[in-house]
Design goal:
The protein is about 50% helix and about 15% strand. The chain is α+β, with helices and mostly antiparallel strands and about 170 residues long. It has one domain: 2-Layer Sandwich (Beta-Lactamase). Strand 1 and strand 2 form a beta hairpin. It is elongated, with a radius of gyration of 22 Å.
């Protein structure tokens, strides 16, 4: 093999090896803090309680994992699980669960309801910073519309903080 061919092959091998090494790095992302999640959950629970409903509220992070789960002492046991699943649905599909419910009425999208932990009932809302979904909140235990309003009341409680996080 000629020296120039060896040099070319050596450079080619370095370029191939450099690609994966160069692609590694630090990923920076916004995350929902526990303090903010607690504020959202408490505000959502209070909004429903003011209307006379005994509900449960769940707040999930950007990965759909529960950060906060609160259940009113008079709420039925299944409300906590339903709130968790609604919050997960809102986070994964980045839309309210009322909108998800309407969207999946179309037979072309109905199979999305069959994904584990998905619940197509109103009451869940994504938590966004700009166009980025960093979590979701959901209420369960009243009507779907009231649960939706309570979840949105929780987000409204921290709206200024969410806006400040979006430069």
């Amino acid at each position: 093999m000629t020296p120039s061919r060896k040099a070319f092959l050596g450079l080619a091998l370095i370029a191939i090896a450099w690609g994966p090494l160069h692609a590694q790095g630090i990923v920076m992302q916004r995350n929902l803090s526990l303090g903010m999640a607690k504020s959202i959950a408490e505000a959502a629970l209070a909004a429903c309680k003011e209307k006379g409903y005994h509900t449960a509220v769940a707040v999930v992070d950007r990965a759909g994992q529960v950060l906060v789960l609160l259940r009113d002492e008079a709420a039925s046991p299944q409300t906590a699980e339903m709130a968790r699943r609604k919050a997960y649905t809102a986070r994964m599909f980045r839309t309210t669960t009322l909108e998800f419910q309407k969207h999946t009425m179309d037979p072309a999208f109905a199979a999305q309801r069959d994904i584990p932990d998905i619940l197509a009932l109103g009451g869940g809302a994504p938590i966004n910073v700009g166009n980025e979904t960093i979590g979701a909140v959901a209420s369960s235990g009243s009507s779907q519309e009231q649960d939706d309003a309570c979840a949105k009341a929780g987000i409204a409680k921290v709206a200024d903080l969410l806006k400040a996080a979006n430069p």
